[in-house]
UniProtKB/TrEMBL annotation:
It comes from Arachidicoccus ginsenosidivorans. Residues 731-800 form the Fibronectin type III-like domain. The keyword Cytoplasm does not apply. The lineage of its organism: Bacteria, Pseudomonadati, Bacteroidota, Chitinophagia, Chitinophagales. Keywords: Glycosidase, Hydrolase. PANTHER family: BETA-XYLOSIDASE (PTHR30620:SF123), PERIPLASMIC BETA-GLUCOSIDASE-RELATED (PTHR30620). This is Beta-glucosidase.
Length: 826
């Protein structure tokens, strides 16, 4: 598919066969040759953007100088990619749509989003959507049309949703981010992101939307499943790993066979704490909390991991929409942090400046506000376009504003090598959902599962009989999470199928659904109770669902419209905010009736947000929190149930007893907490909690401090012993810090480090965690990040607030600015 045009010196010198030239004719030919060479040299110099030996930036500046205003504005548009092709279900022939041709010919667009996407919102199915080979054919055709019908031959950037796998037919569906975070294993998450990047790039796309770096501190919010939880430090480490996996060791690659993509961080900023838990609602927070908690994950992903794209958030902060916040996007992100990638709006958030936040008089003013604030690309393509042109004509923006945004987009196109290598080989389809990625997926799923309560587990595979009951025990889509494409049923293993594959030949396996997630019917109770009574042990799989169906209504942004009348299982996923956190439908009643049989209950939760299930927890002897474990989740859960592997997951978010406790995140400011009339104020299960089949003891905590006029370093060492006599297991050690006295209120405790080790029974190992002054810092009243002189308590813990934590006190004698300038102690 790739076409090249090179100046051929030999062809220019070749004498026509029919020409019998005299001496004068030879002179004429030589003159013509010299003129041709001079013209070619001038053309090459004039078209410096085509010279691959120049830097991407120099090429971008040259190309920018050749573009007219309409072409520049077009480069900032990111349109819906799934509208740009049609696949004929009978023949499988893929044709480009008139929308694409118009968008290229007259709109001069620069990007597409969701070209490979399939789901009920896009109306792309297994039949009319793109399988991996079709995807390569389609993206090649789209790219070829863009290059050959663009006046300057500019290729497109194609972006896809990739938070837990490429959202495309046939791709690998990993656990959602809340499960990824439960692994507390950045190295594993980097491997996973590397696999996602491969699947994305070989199919012809270049940008992966992910990771989501929002802190989830209100579980009523519908998008908790997409986050790494409530803690800034853990989210930062997971985010850095994900970005490095997507983008590779370098920021990007110009290689023809590159397997890396640009990472788009979501959502800038404080999107995960909406007022009332309503998706997109205003974030009520302070500048100090922004800098202490919500900004660090983004800063580390950009300054340490090199992320090249950032998406704005729907919400406002202190009266300013994030998509129009110049202080955040231009002053902080671009100027202070040195971010040299591009900023993209969330879908419709530019329009939201005037039709939701009402801080602009109309669409032209909103477009001007977004561009001046630092938004470079318009997701959806209807926020800029004619409105940006109008803003330019009215003097609301300058050509310099437009040029600044355009050159950022062009720079990455050159950096990715798209002008030289715009197409992909169809052979790349073999990398999608291959055996290596499937095995990696099962590893992530296994490490993501958290054992919350233990009594009977693990089971013997030779158990006489077992009943598997519940709405999520044999439901393919309920275990996959939001932003998932339609699946071939054979590619997903449910809990029932996973258990069936591991039980012994003589084991009797009984199954009953019992009830649905939200439906009020109890028609399945009798069969479920009969199955439980006839079995030795009962595995009950309850929870929630983010599975979209074709009956659900959706907003223009793709968020589901939650209603009380729907009988869909969907109670989570974008747009499905909750006012309670209880199990919906008749799930609790089903569990109570099963527990009343007297048979041992193993409760498995498959869900996207913490559930307030204190009453239900008392009914079960064993509890596994599996979140949305992905396509290999059923195998992973079964392996843990039958002791093939010991659970190692730890909670990345606190599980409340009731919605009335909120907020219940562990690192609240000092002075928070206390009891209620109705019960305790502490969560049912705290941040960092998780059991294993092994048992671990910590000892020999030692802290070595190095302090001078530039820095303070802490080297923390300790011994970990697996005291179990039977189970080899992985343990995760967590280090928390408390600033005893400070000039501003600081958290009760906050995580500053963690380590992990796999130990056989009786085995010991010495672990080390190193801390620099960042771990001791705070933001003072002057808006400075500093370390203040004073005493700090380090706690080596198994979870936040562990009463058996090993503690050590550290005194810091000198204060520091984080730019390494000392503060004199008074």
């Amino acid at each position: 598919m790739q076409s090249t045009c090179k100046f051929n010196l030999n062809a220019a010198c070749r004498k026509p066969r029919h020409l019998n030239m005299a001496k004068s004719g030879s002179v004429a030919l030589l003159t013509l040759l010299i003129i041709t060479l001079v013209m070619a040299s001038t053309a090459l110099k004039a078209q410096a953007y085509k010279d691959a030996t120049l830097s991407p930036y120099k090429r971008s500046v040259d190309l920018l100088s050749r573009m007219n205003t309409a072409e520049k504005i077009g480069q900032l548009a990111t349109l819906f990619g799934w509208e740009m092709y049609q696949k004929h279900e009978g023949s499988g022939i893929i044709q480009l749509s008139d929308k694409l041709k118009s968008a290229i010919d007259s709109g001069h667009i620069g990007m597409l989003w969701g070209t490979l996407r399939a789901d009920p919102w896009t109306q792309k199915t297994l039949e009319n959507g793109l399988n991996p080979k079709d995807a390569i054919t389609a993206t090649n055709k789209i790219q070829h049309y863009a290059i050959t019908h663009s006046r300057l031959g500019i290729p497109l950037l194609l972006a896809e949703e990739c938070a837990h796998g490429l959202m495309a037919i046939g791709s690998t569906v990993f656990p959602t981010a809340i499960g990824q975070a439960s692994t507390w294993d950045p190295k594993l998450i980097r491997q996973m992101a590397t696999a996602i990047a491969k699947e994305t790039r070989v199919l012809g796309s270049h940008i992966a939307y992910g990771p989501i770096l929002d802190l989830a501190r209100d579980p009523r919010w519908s998008r908790v499943e997409e986050t790494y939880g409530e803690d800034s430090y853990l989210v930062s480490k997971m985010g850095e790993a994900f970005v490095r996996g997507l983008q590779g060791s370098g920021a990007y690659s110009q290689a023809k066979d590159s397997l890396h993509v640009i990472s788009t961080l979501k959502h800038f900023i404080a999107y995960g704490i909406p007022s009332g838990g309503h998706n997109g609602g205003p974030a009520v927070t302070s500048n100090r909390m922004l800098f202490d908690d919500y900004l660090p994950p983004f800063k580390s992903a950009i300054t340490k991991a090199g992320a090249l794209s950032v998406m704005t958030a729907y919400n406002s902060i202190d009266g300013v929409p994030c998509t129009a916040n110049e202080a955040l996007l231009k002053d902080l992100l671009k100027n202070q942090w040195g971010f040299n990638g591009f900023v993209v709006s969330d879908l419709g958030s530019i329009s939201g400046i005037y039709n939701s936040s009402h801080t602009a008089a109309g669409p032209t003013q909103a477009a001007a506000a977004a561009l001046q604030a630092g938004v470079d690309s318009d997701l959806g393509g209807y926020g800029y376009g004619k409105y940006l042109d109008s803003a330019l004509q009215k003097g609301l923006i300058s050509m310099g504003d437009l040029d600044s945004a355009t050159v950022r987009i062009l720079n990455l196109k050159f950096a990715l090598g798209l002008f030289e290598h715009p197409y992909r080989s169809v052979n790349g389809a073999s990398l999608v959902h291959n055996k290596i990625h499937q095995q990696l997926n099962q590893q992530v799923a296994t490490q993501s599962i958290v054992l919350l309560k233990k009594k009977l587990l693990p089971l013997s595979p030779d158990i006489k009989s077992i009943a598997v009951i519940g709405p999520n025990s044999d439901n393919t889509y309920n275990q996959l999470g939001d932003y998932t494409a339609p699946q071939d049923p054979a590619s997903v293993t449910t809990v029932l199928e996973g258990i069936k594959a591991l039980v012994g030949k003589n084991t009797t396996l009984r199954y009953a659904k019992g009830c649905a997630i939200r439906d009020s019917s109890s028609a399945g109770f009798t069969a479920a109770i009969d199955a439980a009574k006839a079995s030795e042990v009962v595995v009950v799989v309850l929870g929630g669902s983010s599975a979209r169906d074709f009956k659900t209504e959706y907003k223009s942004t793709g968020a589901a419209i939650a209603t009380q009348n729907t009988i869909s299982d969907m109670e989570n996923g974008e747009g499905n905010d909750r006012s309670t956190l209880k199990l919906l439908g008749r799930q609790s009643e089903l569990l109570a009736k099963l527990a009343a049989t007297g048979k041992p209950i193993i409760l498995v939760l498959i869900n996207g947000r913490p559930v307030a299930f204190e009453k239900e927890a008392d009914m079960a002897g064993d509890i596994l929190e599996a979140w949305y474990p992905g396509a290999e989740g059923g195998k992973a859960i079964a392996r843990i149930i039958f002791g093939k592997v010991s659970p190692s997951g730890r909670l990345p978010i606190s599980i409340p007893r009731s919605v009335g406790q909120l907020p219940v995140y562990y690192s609240q400011p000092k002075g928070s907490g206390g009891h209620y009339v109705e019960g305790p104020g502490q969560p049912l299960y705290p941040f960092g909690y998780g059991l294993s089949y092994g048992s671990f003891e910590y000892s020999d905590l030692k802290v070595s401090k190095t302090e001078n006029n530039q820095d303070v370093l802490l080297d923390v060492s300790f011994k970990v012993t697996n005291t179990s006599k039977r189970f080899a297991s992985t343990d995760i050690q967590q280090l928390y810090i408390t600033d005893q006295t400070s000039s501003v209120v600081t958290p009760i405790r906050h995580l500053v480090g963690f380590s992990r080790c796999y130990l056989k029974p009786g085995q010991s190992v010495t672990q080390r965690i190193k801390l620099d002054k960042t771990a001791l810092s705070l933001w003072n009243l002057k808006g400075q990040q500093v370390v203040e002189p004073g005493n700090f308590i380090l706690a080596l813990s198994k979870f936040a607030g562990d009463p058996d934590a090993l503690k050590a006190q550290v005194e810091v004698h000198t204060g520091y600015l984080l730019d390494m300038q000392p503060i004199e102690r008074k």
